[in-house]
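User: I'm designing a mutation panel for DUF350 domain-containing protein and want to avoid disrupting the core. Could you give me a predicted structure to guide residue selection? Please restate the sequence first so the numbering is unambiguous.

Assistant: Good idea. Sequence first, for numbering, then the predicted structure tokens:
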Amino acid sequence: MELLFQEVVAAASYSLVGLALMAVGYIVIDILTPGKLRTLIWEERNRNASLLLTSNILGLGLIVVGAIWASHGDLVRGLIATAIFGLIGIAAMTLSFVVLDLLTPGKLGEIVTCPDHHPAVWVNCGMHVAVGGMVAMALS
């Protein structure tokens, strides 16, 4: 019974850290794009903004999974690593957004908020998931 309790505490703790990281990721994407994500996605049904946010969540999810896997049962160390690597992932995703914006024509923030589907958003989404995977593998 004690083992079950420890596993429940670990699952709840990792969930809270993961959700906090996803909230920070949401805020960062909201800052990087013109307008408000809540309006763009839930009211205007903007697919570009939705794809970008989804890729950010998936990338952060990979980092959280990697941190849990690498924790080897040490809950405190695992939670700290998850938070640190999650913040590194958010910073790396932000940097990838800025670098991609500098290397490509147009302003990525404007492309993301465009009401018409734009293929450049998929490139940015790929970057977010790839960066999340790279940071997650750095934990191994």
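For picking mutation sites, this is relevant: The chain has one domain: 2-138. Residues 2-138 form one domain.
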